[in-house]
Design brief:
Chains A, B, C: Belongs to the Thz kinase family. Chains A, B, C: Substrate binds at residues 41, 190. Chains A, B, C: GO terms for molecular function: ATP binding; hydroxyethylthiazole kinase activity; magnesium ion binding. Three copies of one chain form a homotrimer. The first copy, chain A, has helices at 5-12, 25-35, 48-54, 67-82, 98-110, 120-126, 145-156, 184-187, 191-203, 209-230, 239-249, 252-258; strands at residues 15-19, 38-41, 57-61, 87-90, 115-118, 159-162, 167-170, 175-178. By secondary structure, chain A is α/β, with parallel strands linked by helices. In chain A, strands 2-1-3-4-5-6-7-8 form an eight-stranded mixed beta sheet, with helices on both faces. In chain A, helix 2 links the parallel strand 1 (15-19) and strand 2. In chain A, helix 2 runs parallel beside helix 11 (239-249), helix 9 packs across helix 10 and helix 10 (209-230) packs across helix 11 (239-249). The longest helix of chain A is centred in the last third of the chain and has 22 residues, at 209-230. Chain A is globular and about 45 Å long. The relative contact order of chain A is 0.16. Chains in contact: A-B, A-C, B-C. Chain A binds chain C through residues 15, 20, 22, 25-26, 29-30, 33-34, 38-47, 50-51, 54-55, 240-249, and chain C through 21-27, 63-67, 93, 96-100, 134-137, 187-190, 233-238, 240-241.
Chain lengths: 262, 262, 262
Amino acid sequence: MKIDLLSKLRKQNPIAFNISNFVTVQDVANGINAIGASPIMSEEKNEAEAMIKISNSLTVNLGAFTEGQLDQIAAVTKYANQYNKPIVIDPVAVGAVQYRLDRCNELLDNINVAVIRGNAGEIAALADVEWQAKGIDAGEGDADLEAIAKALAKKRDCVVVLSGKTDIITNGDAVVRVYNNTDLFKLHVGSGDMLSSTIGTFVAIEDDYFEAAQVAATVFAVAGEIVANRMDQPLAGSFGPQLIDELHLISVADVEKHAQFD
Amino acid sequence: MKIDLLSKLRKQNPIAFNISNFVTVQDVANGINAIGASPIMSEEKNEAEAMIKISNSLTVNLGAFTEGQLDQIAAVTKYANQYNKPIVIDPVAVGAVQYRLDRCNELLDNINVAVIRGNAGEIAALADVEWQAKGIDAGEGDADLEAIAKALAKKRDCVVVLSGKTDIITNGDAVVRVYNNTDLFKLHVGSGDMLSSTIGTFVAIEDDYFEAAQVAATVFAVAGEIVANRMDQPLAGSFGPQLIDELHLISVADVEKHAQFD
Amino acid sequence: MKIDLLSKLRKQNPIAFNISNFVTVQDVANGINAIGASPIMSEEKNEAEAMIKISNSLTVNLGAFTEGQLDQIAAVTKYANQYNKPIVIDPVAVGAVQYRLDRCNELLDNINVAVIRGNAGEIAALADVEWQAKGIDAGEGDADLEAIAKALAKKRDCVVVLSGKTDIITNGDAVVRVYNNTDLFKLHVGSGDMLSSTIGTFVAIEDDYFEAAQVAATVFAVAGEIVANRMDQPLAGSFGPQLIDELHLISVADVEKHAQFD
């Protein structure tokens, strides 16, 4: 794994355009800034093309869209494809709500995406696999997680990051598993959103999206694990600011020392 | 007071649907998650029924709605009534702005609510009592706070939580007062919103809404007091993350030890 | 510089109406509250007049508006002029996106503003000076920053705060430079937004907007510097809550001790 992509990211300081959900947008912006990219946000269709032109990647979080925003998302993603800016999709809660699944699949039918990042329930829903999802959480199920991730990667011809206790990253053929984790990620609303936007910062500076997604997932998981290991007890609220601290402080050497993957 | 409802909450991990205001939504989501429920948010009318069906309660915060969102709020609350999911209403600033008061009363005329949570100025406005409100703050007045809370509870046939230095919880007849408090609640924007959404997590697991509201108010107030007592000086910014820390860490025994009510 | 305006602010506790961008709104609200004012937010045109009437100033952040919100912004700013409530404008990213520059200039053509607060790229764009802007960041350029700020102040007949390593505050003739700073401001998304809303709290209690803007910029910069000086390493995430802590704790004596300006 080319963990020194983290150095490249910080050197290039790419502009990461994010269509975020309103729940976690501030953490997402601060996370992007902390790791070494520059976040820009917009909900206005009329500046979609201008925003894409100055951006190096686009991350679309479908966590809390409205019908009106779908128009803007359609415009922004179309321009991203036209100007060859890689797209990361976060299909929040598509495993729990049919309406979200339908809208997300319509979007994916019309654009090319670089990476889809979701939990098991979300990835399973997009891959048309039966899965028990409960609200925004991952749910539980018996299906083979790697097979599900591969199926979606092949269906949508993209990299898939299925995040959970173990993060599974696949291009449809090869699979990388990242074992770093902490339960605090589940306790902090927006951890998944931040992981997706972190992937967005790496695809902005590395054309091999499979490699970029692996490194992003590993840096993010190691940063969370470092923060958690410093705590005597799980601090659900303090974890957020400290995770952003660590995304800025963490070095390539730190990641290489702690990363556990195969 | 059945403080061990907190254990029931954590065991059942209910899904708490929140229509939040955009100012404090991230704290609200993290607070819900920290105490032991799962937050879901949505502003899209087309998924209103699906969201209500997977939820165990609905909290509607009227802190920053637009005309367009009122349609969605009408739809969501109608489905909540239809599917018997209890509704908590937070009538932000209805004491300061007539437009908000009118819209809130129209909403309350059309639905059944389990709990209304507001400060003195907001509860007084909904109860048609003269009150001096200043912006989003509670204002000051001479009226009998308990009488005001009871009047609204009877008018709307629901539980009322009038929060302030002392929290007053009433079903229209009986009254419980919770004396735990800290000035930091007023310094932290969103404390009231978090209290309302905390009530939303308890009505999700307890059909006796009067009991649920009492316990929610007590757990929340004690958590804030514990955080404040650990501080040498009032830390207006750090209070937010630390309150979320404590909402996760606090035990039934902690609450029982510190709770002051009658 | 009349640094004891900070005492006046805390004594008067003005109501600061903010049209914020959704990315940083919670930090903005908490910062306003912490320094000693009361924030109110609204996106609904129908309550524009009522909100302005109870407010002492209006801060309009153009960080993430949509076409629909421009209607509300037009209404709110018109009422602010009508009721003589001073307006602070934060022209986010007008240096990077022509659409934003056009909308901002249209707005400025139709209203009188007290203060415009932006970074070098934003102020240059509004002053019609060539400048290299990169995303939301300030960009770099060779033009004389003071001349740019003065040009805009004269063009729009208002006070201009050009924030950066050195903050430049001008009424078009006189110039004050504030040298307090920390790199953490750039690492924390929303620092600029918070500075603008802090200016909004000072113009709410002081009719000499040039004086008010100087004091606001100085208090804010000193608070950030104090927080940064307490840290062993740059904590990009913890800086936010701690800055809000300090905005509440900082005294006139603290500011007088640390302020560096001429």
